[in-house]
Write a structure and sequence with these properties.
The complex is a heterotetramer. Chain A is mainly α. Chain A has helices at about 10-15, 20-50, 75-110, 120-140, 165-195, 205-240, 265-300, 305-320, 335-360, 370-390, 390-395, 395-400, 405-435, 440-470, 480-485, 490-505, 505-520, and strands at about 250, 255. In chain A, helix 3 packs across helix 13 (about 405-435), helix 14 runs antiparallel to helix 16 and helix 14 runs antiparallel to helix 17. The two termini of chain A are about 30 Å apart. Chain B is mostly helical. Chain B has one domain (about 1-205): Cytochrome c oxidase, subunit III, four-helix bundle (Four Helix Bundle (Hemerythrin (Met), subunit A)), CATH 1.20.120.80. Chain B is about 75% helix and about 0% strand. Chain B is elongated, with a radius of gyration of 20 Å. The termini of chain B are far apart. By secondary structure, chain C is mostly helical. Chain C folds into two domains: about 1-60; about 70-95. The longest helix of chain C is centred in the N-terminal third of the chain and has 28 residues, at about 5-30. Chain C is built from three helices and no strands. Chains in contact: A-B, A-C, A-D, B-C, C-D. At the A-D interface, helix 3, strand 1, helix 7, helix 9 and helix 10 of A face helix 1, helix 2, helix 3, strand 7 and strand 9 of D.
């Protein structure tokens, strides 16, 4: 099984059109990190307009041209484009590709002892379709009227009558969804079929379980949005009325060219059928990463490993039947809302179980405060805040006041920004030595963590107060409202937090590139970890393992009583 | 290259009883079910939301301008092509490459006939009558569902032609692998047939 | 699927029989549509026939009858459940509304 | 080593709070509201004033929830921080392999589930049912049609006969007839069009929400009322204002470029002022029409 009977492939085959899951993982990772930074930059621009509405943007105000920012002052249409693209880029081009495309691709096959993904060519196709989707999205900024500006949710009829950028957005989304589908088929088959001998389902690292369930969510939840995207394309290009009722009057012009008979609510149902499972696509792999790192750094088996897995399965299943809690305000009666509010309350329980298991895992451990561990630990309270603030939004009555306010923004950003993105950072610091054979610099890492932790809270914590005050989201200038003006100071605080958070990423960017060539060289298993990926050489060669490993025990056998070492890898034959 | 290294590309996994491709195609079909499921959901949603009378009422019977004879003929063609597809697989399974290939060719011809009837007689006729997707939501969903289905047929034809032509080299290298791939193609093909079995009554007859 | 050649060739008859059944059912469904049932009944009949045909295609042509792999059954079951939710729940918005809601903006 | 890290954490947290405090203080600049009208009520970091007869339930639920959330989070965080400190890696300390028997966590989870069930069934569902099903009798209520468009709220009063005139899309004229009102309809003769929502105090209000173009959301923060306005549907909302004054109507759903400016004002006044206003606005409307003829 060693790779030596292969012809050494050329540069292009090896690094560009590679079928090796590790190269694809790195491609995904680097591309997605760039998109993540781009998405964040869009938000930093918006934060200027929010904090100082109508004022000229200093330094860079003039580079966006007269169409977007005449005289350095942002136009509302450009603001809306930035908002829509921030959401789209962060979710579909940044976080999901990082969690699934990068970590899933790189780490999962190693953790199950597989030589590669089950369908390597499909894997490559998945990356290139993703990149194509990303390029389409980027190009849309340069079409007349700018990029999509109807929010990342693209509610029709607004999106139906929007400028050309929306069509590009739809094409981009179709590419991204296709890419995710290819990826998810590949992941499920790989996890089920390619596990090495001895690696039963209940010996799998929790991260692999999280990837498996995430893949099912991608597989079954994404196609409805693909269909909805096709329907919206039909509406925009073929003049159909899937989402348009009859008798619309846009800017005083009666829309006689369309037949009517459709409903805007149809889009919302199809969209949220995707987008609620999508939330769990964003969070489950993050939990997986955090669980790996916590087990490794507490030097203790995960508490309630099986309960966590059952909870995750349940979470994945339930995530398909909570979607309409995004739609309580769309004219929903008592029956459907009761169903969805109930499922929403039920789905909070497995999340509580997982979070509890992770925090009890700390009890009686021997906690090493390494950089990845700090990010993983920070994930716990941040995710707790994000999860708890979901309760008032999940109950229809309290949602009346909080729906579509900054409270919502605060809630889901706590889940995905200091939650998921911290988990992503944790994962990067944790697996960087495996990918490069070198570690990231610790001092820069601590600096990155502490600054990020403070400032990210400074960005999102004020939003709860703004939302409580009733300020709507997606406002270009909230000071036109008395209740918005009263909390403008909080907006300014958020904005400064965002810009400082941007600066706080500098240590990370420096660290990421410098350490790849100048970092401290480390052994194959620098963290004294137990799972299979640490058996492979760093970086692993094509085919991953020198000999096919065999697994003898569960994934987190740390501090086994009577053992000489405090870790007992899965592949070691001897009893402790 | 990686095919030799990866386990279970050809032989089934001892525990799951599946080779990778077969499991993969079933998962893909599951996602296809959800894709068409969203369109069926749209159909139900629009139909239930349509008023009893008026310009946006749901057309039935004659009002649909759909020719059930052409639709029925296409149903038969597609069912027949499913049979030839599965017979092709049987022939490959019995090591009878030449016969299997003939069945594949028949399948491809039937599929092309289906698409030809769809485009040449049905769509062209309707365009001639000034019936376009934008005419009403019924025709919007009709064109979208049948169009997406036709794209699936065309995709299937491309794959079948590949296995008749350049893909047949694999038969020489690894017969079981080739037969497996035909089986996967067949699963996809039957699924496309299965979708049409539902599309035909809900669009043409109801 | 380690069928011996004989096993597979035995299936051929089944395949032909299924084709005949499917063709007959197609004719029946067309014929039934000319009976002018009341609407709900017509829909029920047509969907019932389509379901029988689909079941035949899935069990025989797609070999589910001989399929022992639990994973495939699991995926099918899971998909079926979500399919039902996807197809039924959105349409409920037409009936479950706040008091006094109507489906027109004008009038 | 560990101690120095803890000191580091503490320092950064203190610095963070020091950064946050002045920026909050500095931000307290008073900008004038776009319309120039004085909006009544104290607005700040908490919930806005609650001026509806039935809105208290929403507030109560929000407040109970936040106490519950705070209690859970603080309890959880104390345990979390305790673990971080007590079980930090140090010389002579080893992790325990065997899992701790944590009955408390199971009880906590059951408690959380039970309390959520209470919130849902005991508090949320009755409020929601009242908001959606208990429409006040149209005889004692002020009935208004709210017509949303990019980027303006239009208000349509039925006038003395209590009947709304016929409206149709092809009658719409952005300047002269934003409602698309058919003036030839006898019921339409006394109908009143306004861009400000005037309502009598202490009397139930029913607003029928419709949209001419895209989805908007009719949001009255001080009334705890929010309802998306869906094109192709007419969805009623109802509430009873209890305090006179001038308040805001906001659009809470992205509806296009100038979504932020889709703001109207709501004036709650006594019956007499309301009647006078209705008359004045109605006259202005008819006057306009005479001029156009």
């Amino acid at each position: 099984m060693s790779g030596d009977h292969h012809h050494e492939p050329g540069f292009i085959r090896k690094y560009v059109f590679s079928v090796d899951h590790k190269v694809i993982g790195v491609q995904y990772g680097v591309t997605a990190l760039c998109f993540l930074f781009l998405g964040f930059s869009l938000m930093m621009l918006m934060r200027w307009q929010l904090a100082y509405p109508g004022e000229e943007m200093p330094f860079i105000g003039n580079i966006f041209g007269e169409d977007a920012m005449p005289g350095g002052v942002m136009l509302p249409e450009f603001y809306n484009s930035l908002g829509a693209m921030h959401g789209t880029i962060m979710i579909f081009l940044g976080v999901v590709p990082l969690l699934v495309g990068a970590f899933g691709n790189y780490v999962m096959p190693l953790q199950i002892g597989a030589p590669d993904m089950a369908f390597p060519k499909l894997n490559m196709a998945s990356y290139w379709v993703y990149l194509l989707g990303g390029i389409v999205m980027l190009c849309s900024f340069f079409v007349p009227g700018g990029a999509a500006n109807s929010g990342w949710t693209s509610y029709p009829p607004l999106s139906n009558i929007a400028t050309t950028g929306q069509t590009w957005w739809l094409f981009g989304m179709v590419c991204l969804i296709t890419s995710s589908l290819l990826g998810s088929v590949n992941f499920i088959v790989t996890i089920i079929q390619l596990r090495v001998e001895g690696l039963t389902m209940f010996r799998l690292p929790y991260f692999v379980w999280a990837q498996l369930i995430t893949s099912f969510l991608l597989l079954l939840a994404f196609p409805p949005l693909e269909a909805a995207g096709v329907l919206q394309l039909m509406d925009r290009l073929a003049g159909t009325s899937f989402f348009m009722p009859e008798g619309l009057v846009v800017s005083g012009v009666v829309q006689t060219q369309m037949s009517g008979g459709g409903s805007p609510l149809l889009w919302q149902h199809l969209f949220w059928f995707l987008a609620h499972p999508e939330v769990y696509v964003l969070i489950l792999p993050a939990m997986g990463i955090v669980a790996e790192i916590i087990a490794n750094n507490t030097r203790k088996p995960l508490w309630g490993y099986r309960a966590m897995i059952y909870s995750t399965i349940f979470l994945g299943f339930m995530s398909f039947i909570v979607w309409a809690h995004h739609m309580f305000m769309t004219g929903m009666g008592t029956k459907i809302s009761a169903f969805f509010a109930t499922t929403t309350m039920i789905i909070s329980i497995p999340s509580v179980v997982i979070l509890t298991a992770l925090v009890i895992s700390l009890y009686q451990g021997a906690i090493r405060f390494t950089v990845p561990m700090l990010f993983a630990l920070a994930f716990l309270p941040m995710f707790a805040i994000g999860g708890l603030t979901g309760l008032p939004l999940g109950l229809p009555a309290s949602d009346i006041h909080l729906h579509d306010t900054y409270y919502v923004i605060g809630h889901f950003h706590y889940v995905v920004a200091p939650g998921t993105i911290f988990a992503i950072f944790a994962g990067i610091y944790h697996w960087y030595p495996k990918v490069t054979g070198r570690t990231l610099n610790n001092a820069l890492g601590y600096m990155h963590f502490f600054l990020s932790f403070v400032f990210i809270n400074m960005v999102f914590m004020p939003m709860f107060w703004q939302g409580m005050a009733g300020v709507s989201r997606r406002l270009y200038d909230q000071t036109v409202y008395a209740h918005g003006d009263a909390v403008q100071s909080l907006t300014i605080m958020s904005s400064w937090g965002a810009w400082m958070l941007g600066l706080a990423q500098i240590p990370f960017i420096i660290n990421f590139f410098i350490s790849a060539v100048a970092g401290k060289k480390v052994s194959n298993n620098p963290w004294d970890a137990t799972t299979l990926e640490w058996l492979a050489p760093s970086p692993p060669p094509h085919g991953n393992f020198e000999t096919v490993p065999v697994v003898y025990r569960g994934p987190y056998e740390y501090s086994v009583p009577g053992a000489s070492e405090d870790f007992h890898p899965q592949h070691v034959t001897t009893e402790a | 290259m990686s095919a030799e290294v990866l386990p279970y590309t050809v032989k089934p996994h001892p525990v799951t009883g599946l080779y990778n491709g077969k499991f993969g195609i079933w998962l893909f079909l599951a996602s296809e079910v959800m894709l068409f499921g969203a369109l069926f959901s749209t159909y139900v949603f629009l139909r239930m939301g349509a008023p009893e009378t008026g310009p946006t009422a749901w057309p039935t019977g004659e009002e649909t301008h759909l020719n059930w004879m052409l639709g029925g003929l296409n149903t038969l063609i597609l069912i027949l092509s499913s049979v030839t597809m599965v017979l092709a697989w049987v022939q490959f399974k019995m090591d009878n490459f030449a016969k299997g290939r003939i069945y594949l060719i028949i399948t491809a011809i039937l599929a092309i006939a289906f698409v030809a009837i769809k485009f040449k007689f049905e769509y062209a006729h309707k365009f001639h009558m000034d019936i376009y997707p934008k005419t009403s939501v019924f025709f919007a969903i009709y064109y979208t569902m049948t169009g997406l289905h036709a794209i699936h047929i065309i995709g299937g034809v491309v794959v079948i032609c590949y296995f008749i032509g350049p893909g047949a080299k694999l038969w020489e290298e690894n017969r079981e692998y080739y037969t497996n791939r035909i089986e996967c193609t067949g699963l996809y093909w039957h699924f496309v047939d299965l979708v049409w079995i539902f599309l035909f009554p809900i669009l043409y007859l109801l | 699927m380690s069928d011996a050649h004989a096993d597979v060739s035995k299936h051929v008859k089944t395949y032909i029989a299924v084709f005949a059944t499917l063709a007959t059912l197609t004719v029946i469904t067309v014929w039934a549509s000319t009976w002018h049932f009341s609407h709900p009944v017509a829909i029920a009949v047509a969907l019932a026939i389509a379901s029988v045909k689909a079941t035949l295609v899935a069990t025989i042509f797609m070999h589910l009858k001989w399929e022992k792999a639990g994973n495939i059954w699991f995926v099918i079951a899971l998909t079926a459940v979500f399919f039902v939710f996807l197809v039924t729940i959105p349409s409920l918005v037409h009936s479950d509304k706040p008091m006094g809601t109507v489906f027109t903006s004008w009038g | 080593m560990n101690r120095s890290r803890i000191i580091g954490i503490a320092t950064i947290l203190v610095v963070g709070i020091c950064l946050i405090a002045p920026s909050v203080a500095l931000g307290q600049a008073d900008a004038p509201i776009a319309s120039g009208n004085q909006i009544d009520g104290d607005y700040g970091y908490g919930l806005p004033p609650m001026l509806s007869k039935d809105g208290q339930g929403v507030d109560d639920l929000i407040i109970i929830l936040h106490w519950f959330m705070t209690a859970l989070f603080v309890g959880w965080a104390i345990f979390f921080v305790y673990c971080l400190f007590r079980f930090r890696s140090r010389a002579g300390h080893k992790a325990t392999y065997d899992p701790v028997k944590a009955k408390a966590s199971k009880y906590a989870e059951i408690g959380v589930a039970a309390f959520e069930a209470f919130l849902l069934i005991g508090l949320s569902m009755p409020i929601w049912a009242a908001t959606k099903n208990d429409m006040p009798s149209k005889d004692d209520a002020t009935h208004v049609r709210v017509v949303a468009e990019q980027f303006q709220w239009n208000f349509h009063y039925p006038g003395a006969d209590g009947k709304f005139g016929r409206t149709a899309p092809d009658m719409v004229d952005t300047v002269e007839n934003p409602l698309g009102l058919d003036r030839s309809d006898p019921a339409a003769t006394d109908d009143v069009y306004a861009t400000e929502l005037h309502l009598p105090v202490n009397k139930p209000v029913i607003c029928d929400l419709t949209s001419k173009d895209v989805i908007h959301s009719f949001s009255l923060p001080v009334m705890r009322v929010k309802q998306d306005v869906i094109p192709g549907m007419r969805i009623p909302v109802w509430f009873t204002p209890v305090k006179e004054g001038r308040y805001e109507v906001a659009c809470a759903q992205l509806c296009g470029n100038n979504h932020y400016s889709m703001r109207a004002e709501m004036v709650i006044e006594d019956d007499a002022s309301f009647a006078t206003w209705l008359k004045e606005v109605g006259i202005v409307e008819e006057f306009d029409e005479d001029e156009l003829d």
